[in-house]
Amino acid sequence: MSGHAKTSRRTVIKGAAAGAAASMLAVPAIARRQESLSGSVSMWAYPLDSSGDQGADEAMWQALADAFREQYPDVEVSVEVLPWANRNEKLTTALAAGANPDVAYLNDDFIPQHAGDGNIMAVDDVIEDERDDFLPNAIDNLSLDGSLYAVPILTTVTTALYNKNLFDQIGVSEYPGTWDEMLELGPQFKEAGVFLTGYPGALEQTLNLSYFPLLWQAGGEVLNEDGTAAAFNSPEGREALDFVVTLIQEGFADESEAVTLPEPGAGLAMEGKVAVIMTGEAGSARRYTEAWGEGAVVIGAPLQNKVQTSYGTTAGFSIFQNSENVDAAKAWVKFITQPEQMETILRSGGFITPRSSMIGMYGDDPIQGEIEKYADLMHSGVHHPAARQIISAMGPHIQSAFLGQTSSEDALAAAEQEVNRLIERG
User: Are residue 55 and residue 132 in the same domain, yes or no?
Assistant: First the structure.
């Protein structure tokens, strides 16, 4: 979610137009009209639909804007569906020029920058009557210094996926849920000529899907509580990195794939030679089902050491401080994050709800219905304006350790120095 690979497109959706688009989606009718609110609301959104229909996002937002207009006939909503590529750079440039929208879709890793710079306003009042229905981690992920800066619209979940075929091959019917249980099985899979797991440690891969989940499972954090210094050079950080080193050096994970990402649709996991995917998600579960065979993918809970968790991002809608239509913007954001509208948005791309009352909406889907159960266990990425630079700085040091070029202690100490310099530079 920090970036979705979609075809770039841009459109303007006017709240007054296109009844045909509105008829494409089932949006509940709004019974009570609000005549007192007027003005206009502009919003930037990004492609969420996974159907492959190039016009699906536009049609969805058109239908939602039309339904909102039924309740607020004097408020005009325009939504631009923009490309994922360079989205924060475009937003930052627009803010500098005073050309930003009233509302924008933001992922949790953008909140520290835009809330810290005073670009977006706290929106606790938008959900004050239903705050308890939002998952605590979703609220935390979109907050800074105790204030909420985006109303949650979706979350993502990564969790353990097991290749039942390989477990059947070695005669094991109970799937490992802890690091120790994983390592106990490593020699059996190695003897069978396959791999216990894989470690996506290529430098172009985000640590959110490799080292960080293990760090959190060990009870550690990337930064200290106030984000002023690195915290990963700790006993927990070393335990997590030592686990990675063991996986690679013992041959329980393939070293070459740990440094070079396989081509899409290729690699040892797709070939059915990896028993445990440590950070799988719904899309990969479907791809593995196609590759391994029906019933071969078993979805488990996130792995644990001291803590049971994995990586998941949260996204929401933020309102900019310079909006001239704050009341209308808040009404629009509240409307599109209500359960009925939220479900329309979530189902367009197969995302997980941040509302506890909606867990179970995918109950008829054997993959999503299982994965959504773990939404409340997810841990977000680094909450710091330099989050992506921090990941880039740490990656080579993590890699040097699992390749045996340096010790875990020395790798983390060197990474700590680099990250602290980044933070000090602001």
Answer: yes
